[in-house]
Amino acid sequence: MKRSILSHYLSRSDSSTCAILYYLARDRRAQDKLHKELDDQLSAEDLTVATGPQVKNLPYMDACINESLRLHSTSALGLPRVVPEGGLTIDDHYFPPGTVLSVPSFTIHRDKRIWGDDVDDFRPERWFEQNQADIQKTFNPFSIGPRACVGRNLAYLELQLIIASIMRRYDIVLESPDQKLETREGFLRKPLGCKIGIKRRDCLGLRTSRTRTSTTGTVGGDNALLNSSTSIVEHRFIRTSVNTRIIATMALQTLTLSTENEPTVTVTTGYPPPPGMHGMAIRGPLE
């Protein structure tokens, strides 16, 4: 129980939020469609952080979130497990004792049989077009079953609240149109420095003299993130990793677990392997 509570409290969605903002900033068409859905569903007078009931019926926003999680799962790797004595048969494939098995999200989220030939493209519309039964069996950003991420429901709700609150108010662009989202690879895929431009949307009908803007600077700087006395005439660039300071939903940093001196494994499949998968620790036996 204590571990479950700790996992819920420490679960974070800032990495996923950074990735979602990156893909939306890169795709003007998708961003415009999301803005329209939010404008239609949320009141123009509602300027507070979005609430749970408000984000329950935003299908295109959910598609944007899911598509970003497909392309940039927080964990690209499944936790490797060792086949016990007696072996194991899965889908008519026999695996002898001692075999190390894993289910890497990076790989299954790029299976063209499920997602189509454009698996590397950010296209939220695929979530309305593809076979939903196949998607439900294949999409696993938080894993599936009794050992799935214990904080998955909280994390997804946080993503809905953060994205709805940010995108309802702001227009975002990349500092450079061809900018790539660099990540630090490991069990968790942590986005690194990526600058986006952020501008208050005029459709809210707010006085421009009170428009809030983010300052230009690095994460953790002394500058205030928001300046309520500045009028926006152009996008101001910030790093995506400061988004959780805009919507303060996270309180703690990720708990870092040491895996030194543990056995490691490299998995080989017929599909593209997830990046940075070497050195992944085997966390326990397959049960």
From TrEMBL:
Pfam families linked: p450
Keyword 4Fe-4S in record: no
Region Disordered, annotated ranges: 263-287
Keyword list, A-Z: Heme, Iron, Metal-binding, Monooxygenase, Oxidoreductase
Positions bound to heme: 149
Gene Ontology MF terms: heme binding; iron ion binding; monooxygenase activity; oxidoreductase activity, acting on paired donors, with incorporation or reduction of molecular oxygen
Coiled coil start-end: none
InterPro entries, sorted: Cyt_P450, Cyt_P450_CS, Cyt_P450_E_grp-I, Cyt_P450_sf, Cytochrome_P450_monoxygenase
Cofactor entry: heme
Pathway(s) this gene product operates in, as recorded in its UniProt entry: Secondary metabolite biosynthesis
Protein family per UniProt: Belongs to the cytochrome P450 family.
Designated name of the protein: Cytochrome P450 monooxygenase
Annotated source species: Agrocybe chaxingu
Biological classification of the source: Eukaryota, Fungi, Dikarya, Basidiomycota, Agaricomycotina
